[in-house]
């Protein structure tokens, strides 16, 4: 499922344009599963599945699987509809160099919403 | 092609606030019992555009919204460039009472959202005689910070982009796309550090948890309306306030978020009109 991210993001010209000054990598943890996502000028160049021994990334987003499941449902319930909502409930941990995350917050919100049920590319 | 004009008229008011001259932008439409509207943190009076364009409201009410100093078309006071803007409960209260008096409003109905909903609780407690009724939207007694507020004002993060992105998830899922992005645009236009300075009141200085139960609704009726999808001021937080105040009426608005009057005016008005009806012309 996470693997679909690359195509869905790269097929969205507006999203790629908004990320054109962004080159970074971040770690996405869905419960026990880890994914290293590399971005070059707004395009996702790779999504690598863990487990990793020493993953290097600017920051990490970690939440239990059931929380991501709600977030990625077609109409997420209140409290699960946005990354900030998950952070407010202390179920999503954002760790690392969060300047990159916050400076590109709309981009990262829209990237992760691409995995939502029924989300178009 | 024929241009269409809205009935909203704007003016600039000059008055002293906190001992300093200010230039404040005030918009209004309609005639009747005054309805004074307070916008959210980091935004401006445009959030009430739909109320001012709805004849069901303006046929019975003079709807007035001012941009707080530093916001929208209101200026910051001279000397602002060397200051850090921080809104306090005391300044916020003074500003509302002074502007209301300057407009010669006779006991207006007050409606405020988010920080406006919070100060509405302060005013219900401390100045109930000044208002014929108070309507708090997304009003809670306190909000814990849930992100590092410093990201709102630093040179390596675009203030407008981050403010819009921070609040985007607070818009409910049913908001029409045009109104959703209009609401976010207002946030993106906010001046450097202004949203952060407003949140000083919202998250620190304006905590009213210890006193909110002392509000006496016999002196001024209090109505609270909150959107289901607001995770900044959750329905539970609004219900907790309402349940601690005898006589307070509360509505949780399905599908709406943190900006009901701006993100989804059509649905919001189905909740607001019965409240205005109940308040009457007092």
Rg over C-alpha atoms of chain B, rounded to the nearest angstrom? 17 Å
Major beta sheet, strand line-up of chain A? 3-2-1-4-5
Approximate shape of chain B = globular
The end-to-end distance of chain A, rounded to whole angstroms, is: 14 Å
* Count of extended strands of chain B: 8
Structure description:
- The complex is a heterodimer of chains A (121) and B (282).
- By secondary structure, chain A is of the alpha+beta class.
- Chain A has a domain at 4-64 and 92-113: SCP2 sterol-binding domain (Nonspecific Lipid-transfer Protein, Chain A, 2-Layer Sandwich), CATH 3.30.1050.10.
- Helices cover 34% and strands 26% of the residues of chain A.
- Chain A has six helices and five strands.
- Chain A has helices at 4-10, 13-18, 65-71, 83-88, 98-103, 105-113, and strands at residues 24-30, 33-40, 43-49, 59-63, 93-96.
- A five-stranded mixed beta sheet of chain A has the order 3-2-1-4-5.
- The model of chain A has no long low-confidence stretch (mean pLDDT 96).
- Chain B has 282 residues and is α/β, with parallel strands linked by helices.
- Chain B has a single domain, classed as Rossmann fold (3-Layer(aba) Sandwich).
- Helices cover 34% and strands 18% of the residues of chain B.
- Chain B has ten helices and eight strands.
- Chain B has helices spanning 49-52, 55-58, 89-102, 115-126, 159-167, 177-188, 194-205, 235-244, 260-263, 265-279, and strands at residues 9-17, 20-29, 33-38, 61-66, 109-113, 133-137, 222-227, 249-253.
- Chain B has an eight-stranded mixed beta sheet with strand order 1-2-4-3-5-6-7-8, sandwiched between helices.
- In chain B, helix 8 links the parallel strand 7 and strand 8 (249-253).
- The longest helix of chain B is centred in the C-terminal third of the chain and has 15 residues, at 265-279.
- Chain B is globular.
- The model of chain B has no long low-confidence stretch (mean pLDDT 97).
- Classes of the chains: A alpha+beta (121), B alpha/beta (282).
- The interface between A and B is medium-sized, with 19 and 23 residues.
